[in-house]
Specification:
This protein has 15 helices and 14 strands. It is an alpha/beta fold. Bound molecules: pyridoxal-5'-phosphate.
Length: about 425
C-alpha cells in the first residue's frame, strides 16, 4: 500500500509522521492524492465521502469552482506584497456587517494566532494577567491555552502540554462548560481575571452544546465581574449561523476570534471586537502584534469569496441535510448523537455536557468504528474528540450512502445491539 510506504518514510522525517497531530492515526493515515466536492481520494485509489473536511474550513466542500477562479485571478496579480490592499477593507466591512460586535479587527494567519492576540489585548485592556478558559476547549497551540486543551491534545493524552512554564499555567484558570456556579465562584475569588475565553459551542471535546440560557448567563456574570468575554468562533463562525453562535444565541461578546471558514480553505485568523480594545494594538496602541503573511491577498480573496457566497446561499440547505443524517444516526445509536446547524457527532457513551463527561467516552470503540466506516468509503475525523461537518457539496446520495455505511459499521463494531 502506497499510504503505508509513505507513512513509513514520513515517520523518520517528521514527529509522528505528520504536520499536525490530529492527522495521525493507527496503523497509518491515508495519503491524499486529490479532493473534489464532498470526496477525498487517497494515493491507493480509494474514494471517501469526507465529513472531516479539513476540520471545518471547507463549507463548500473541496475546491469549489467559484473559489478556484478567484484564486487563479489573484495569482496572476501576485500573492504577497507586504503593503496594504483594498481587499482588506472590503473583507473587514463584510465581516463587520455580519458580526455587529466586531467594530474593528485584524487579519492574522491562523486561529491560534487570533486567540493568542485576542488574549494579549484583553490582558492589556484590563491590565490583569489571568484568564479563564473552559476545560476541554481548544484555542490553538500556544502557552496560555494548552492547559486542559481539547482536540489533538486530548486525543493524544496530553491536555497539559509539556514545555508550558508553570508561570503560564497559573494564569490560566479553568471551569467546566455548562456550569454557571463554577464560573461565578472563580470570578468572585479571582479579581485579577482579564477575560473569559470560550467556544460557545464546544467542538474540540466531541460536540458539546450549551444548555438553554447558559451563554446569556455567562455574558451577565462576566459583565457583573468586569471581565471581558471572548468568543472563539473559529468553528462556529459562518457555520452555526452566518453571524456565528453570537447571532444564533443572541449574546454579544467583547472580542471574537474567527478562522477556518473565514479563509475559505486558505490559512487565516481574524480577531476583533470593541473599538476601544482593538485600538490598543500597534501601531495605534502599545500592544504589539505583527505578521509577514497577515492579510495576504490569497487568504483574503479565498475568505472574502467564500463569505460573500455564503451570504447569498441559505445555510438551511446544509442544516436540513445535517438534521437528516443526525436523526438517522440518533436512531441507529439509540440517541447517542447530537447535531447543530451543519455540525454533528456520534458518541460512544453518554451524551456529554462538559469535558469530564467527554473523557468518559469510549475512544477505542470510536476508533474501531472509524476504521469500519473508512472501509466503507466514509471519512469521519479520526478521534472521538473531533466533530463531523457537512458541506454544500454533499448530495442526498452521499447522505444515503453514509447512513447505510454508518449502520453497517456500527453493527460490525458490535454496538448496534446495545439498546
Ligand atoms: C481550529 C481551532 C483553533 C486553531 O486554529 P488554527 O488555524 O488551527 O490555528 C482555535 N480555536 C478553535 C475553536 C478551533 O477549532
Amino acid at each position: 500500500m502506497r499510504s503505508k510506504e509513505l507513512y513509513d518514510e514520513a515517520i523518520k522525517l517528521m514527529p509522528g509522521g505528520v504536520s499536525s497531530p490530529v492527522r495521525a492515526f493507527k496503523p497509518h493515515p491515508f495519503y491524499v492524492e486529490r479532493a473534489n466536492g464532498s470526496k477525498i481520494y487517497d494515493v491507493d485509489g480509494k474514494e471517501y465521502i469526507d465529513y472531516c473536511l479539513a476540520y471545518g474550513p471547507l463549507i463548500f466542500g473541496h475546491s469549489p469552482e467559484s473559489l478556484k477562479k478567484a484564486l487563479y485571478e489573484q495569482i496572476e496579480k501576485g500573492w504577497l506584497y507586504g503593503a496594504p490592499v483594498e481587499l482588506e477593507i472590503k473583507y473587514a466591512k463584510l465581516i463587520k456587517k455580519i458580526y455587529p460586535s466586531i467594530e474593528m479587527l485584524r487579519f492574522v494567519n491562523t486561529g491560534s494566532e487570533a486567540t493568542m492576540s485576542a488574549l494579549r489585548v484583553a490582558r492589556a485592556f484590563k491590565e490583569r494577567d489571568k484568564i479563564v478558559k473552559i476545560e476541554g476547549s481548544f484555542h490553538g497551540s500556544h502557552e496560555a491555552v494548552l492547559v486542559k486543551a481539547g482536540s489533538g491534545a486530548t486525543t493524544h493524552g496530553i491536555p497539559n502540554s509539556a514545555g508550558v512554564p508553570l508561570d503560564f499555567v497559573k494564569n490560566t484558570l479553568q471551569v467546566p462548560f455548562n456550569d454557571l456556579e463554577a464560573l461565578s465562584y472563580i470570578l468572585e475569588k479571582n479579581k485579577d481575571v482579564a477575560a473569559v475565553i470560550m467556544e460557545p459551542v464546544m467542538g474540540n471535546s466531541s460536540l458539546i452544546i450549551p444548555e438553554e440560557g447558559y451563554l446569556r448567563e455567562v455574558r451577565k456574570i462576566t459583565e457583573e465581574n468586569d471581565v471581558l468575554l471572548i468568543f472563539d468562533e473559529i468553528i462556529t463562525g459562518f457555520r452555526v449561523s452566518l453571524g456565528g453562535a453570537q447571532e444564533y444565541y443572541k449574546v454579544k461578546p467583547d472580542l471574537t476570534t474567527l478562522g477556518k471558514i473565514a479563509g475559505g480553505g486558505l490559512p487565516i485568523g481574524i480577531f476583533g471586537g470593541r473599538k476601544e480594545i482593538m485600538e490598543m494594538i500597534a501601531p495605534s496602541g502599545n500592544v504589539y502584534q505583527a505578521g509577514t503573511f497577515s492579510g495576504n491577498p490569497l487568504s483574503l480573496i479565498a475568505g472574502y469569496t467564500t463569505v460573500k457566497e455564503l451570504k447569498k446561499r441559505n445555510l438551511e440547505e446544509i442544516n436540513r441535510k445535517t438534521e437528516e443524517i443526525g436523526k438517522a444516526i440518533k436512531d441507529i445509536t439509540n440517541g447517542k448523537a447530537a447535531y447543530i446547524s451543519s455540525i454533528f457527532c456520534v458518541y460512544f457513551g453518554e451524551v456529554p455536557r462538559n469535558y469530564s463527561d467527554a473523557l468518559k467516552l469510549n475512544k477505542e470503540a470510536y476508533m474501531k468504528f472509524f476504521h469500519e466506516l473508512l472501509k466503507r468509503g466514509v471519512f469521519f475525523p479520526p478521534s472521538q474528540f473531533e466533530v463531523c461537518f457537512l458541506s454544500f457539496a454533499h448530495t442526498d446520495y452521499d447522505l444515503e450512502k453514509t447512513i447505510e455505511a454508518f449502520d453497517d459499521a456500527y453493527e460490525a463494531c458490535g454496538w448496534k445491539q446495545r439498546k
